[in-house]
Design brief:
2 copies of one chain form a homodimer.
Chain A (H helix, E strand, L loop, with lengths): L2 E5 L4 H12 L3 E5 L15 E3 L16 E4 L6 H4 L3 H22 L2 E7 L26 H21 L2 E7 L2 E2 L10 H11 L3 E4 L5 E3 L1 E2 H13 L2 H10 L6 E4 L4 E3 H11 L7 E4 L14 H7 L7 H13 L1
Parallel strand pairs in A: 1-2, 1-4, 2-3, 4-5, 5-6, 6-11, 7-10, 8-13
Antiparallel strand pairs in A: 9-12
Chain lengths: 318, 318
């Protein structure tokens, strides 16, 4: 039986990955400090270690076949409450993953983020883009922590030939999101269900791309199925120094349209739209170029916003 | 007697700072692993601890009044040989400095770098600029390590009111540089003194700004002399969230002109100019906007390239 380690496996995306790994007959070890993860998210059948990844070392783990590094608060409301811990979770979590992957010659998935592109100058974002990120702002703990984590992955790949694969995850939604994570889809749904005002920051004309979580999980499984030598050949052929893929849904929606769709799908809601000032450092727009993922994985997002929202709304109703 | 801690005090810039602190009657404790620092650089009279900052903790240090965090290899030739250690030195060195500063309510100088601006899109660089940096390249260990270090400083300032001051040091030269650090001024001087070909990467039309080390040291002393409350007022008035200053010389020289100046100042040299291809990720151009430093410190660089080069050439001759 193959063993997989999932850092952050009680979180939104980590819990979906853990569930799929279980279906594939893996022995799954979840490590989560439950800061933003919840016990309710953890699928039955996993081995659960309630620990902070920053307090663990390689010797704490048995030999594993695969490592999924997803431990890090990802919502501004959470990471801004603990900025130093957030940066350190990114850094120490990826170092621990890399050291285990190196010891066990395991495959490793590193969850990076579209936030490494910051407030991008050109659209859509390609893997070749370097990003436009503030080092000293309120969002920096997450953005810069994730950026240097990518750097550490790259150097472990170059120096120690570690079989790490980086994905840059764009805006993702679905069941198991936290109600209070402060991100736009959960905010709108929760506000609509409670009959509260739906808050739009700015004029609502800023666009976002929204990926349903099962599309992301499918991409991850296809990515992890590829053998190292084939991966290396592919990324060398597209002139990227290490395996790194944008995974997201490139369809664009304005925030205002999203709010209206949510209200349409919750016809019983009595909520109204209200507009507030944009917070500082808020990324204006982000959309993935997924050319490389399509080519390498023969994958593209298939879940429409309509059906993804329906699933998510019924999750939040429960 | 005031106590000052200098991480990287056996290095090029750290050794000059240590010497000036001694002149000001400080008890100076230098911590250096001698990877790029040398014993010869350490001024007589300091307490020297030959240790790696990544292996130390707060309890290893007595109460100090000031901390200067300069521990990190800064030349591509050195940091690319140890990329992971370089990133970790940046990260752990700044965390240790911040924790000591927090414990002792000490003033702290954090040495950041113009490299956080990467390959800038606009010139000159202002403190407000976010930079254009590759996360997965060969230079990333230094650039991204330094970027996230700035982030950690910012969050310690915001959360714990630590009295940290960040400087972004632009290209600096002078005595105590390593002969083999691979940077352009030491390369050219050493090549000229040996009668070897002087290597210019690209066409030599790329410009650089060069700051003589005593100008930098003067800026640092003026910066550290300012009281915290005054600093905070100043940076709030210029709409920067934390104290951060560019320190460099904005005068621009082409690499080709520098090579010719070096040859003119070493008339006995038999060297010729040769041209090679630009390495990947090489920053094309960088020049500091020092408006804020001028205003806050009543400072500007006063040493001409001519006289700085003369001093540096006579150092390398010895």
């Amino acid at each position: 039986m193959k063993k997989a380690l999932v850092f952050g496996g009680a979180g939104f995306i980590g819990s979906h990955l853990s569930a799929e790994l279980l279906k594939d007959d893996y022995h799954v070890i979840v490590v989560d400090n439950l800061y933003t993860g919840t016990k309710a998210n953890i699928p039955e059948g996993v081995e659960f270690l309630e620990r902070d990844v920053t307090a663990l070392c390689v010797a704490d783990f048995p030999k594993v076949d695969e490592i999924y590094n997803l431990a890090c608060p990802a919502s501004p409301v959470h990471y801004q409450a603990r900025p130093i811990e957030t940066a350190l979770t990114s850094i120490k979590g990826v170092l621990l993953s890399l050291e285990i992957a190196r010891r066990d010659k395991a495959k490793m998935l590193h969850a990076s983020t579209s936030e490494i592109y910051g407030d991008p100058i050109k659209h859509p974002q390609e893997e070749y883009d370097w990003g436009n990120v503030n080092t000293i702002g309120w969002r920096s703990c997450y953005d810069e922590g994730k950026r240097v984590a990518e750097t550490l992955v790259s150097d472990y790949v170059r120096l120690y030939d570690v079989d790490a694969r980086t994905i840059r995850i764009f805006n993702t939604y679905g069941p198991n999101m936290l109600r209070d994570d402060g991100r736009v889809i959960s905010n709108f749904i929760v506000q609509a269900l409670k009959g509260e005002d739906i808050t739009i920051y700015g004029e609502g004309t800023q666009t976002r791309s929204f990926q349903y979580v099962t599309d992301l999980v499918n991409a991850v499984f296809k990515y992890m199925a590829i053998e190292k030598s084939e991966l290396r050949r592919f990324f060398a052929s597209v002139r990227l120094p290490i395996p790194v893929l944008n995974i997201g849904n490139p369809e664009e929606y304005t925030i205002k349209r999203l709010a209206k769709d949510v209200l349409r799908l919750i016809p019983e809601s009595s909520s109204r739209l209200v507009f507030k000032a944009l917070p500082s450092d808020d990324p204006k727009k982000r959309r993935p170029d997924i050319t490389l993922a399509k080519k390498l994985l023969d994958w593209e997002p298939v879940v429409s916003l309509e059906s993804g929202l329906k699933e998510t709304i019924s999750y939040f109703k429960r």
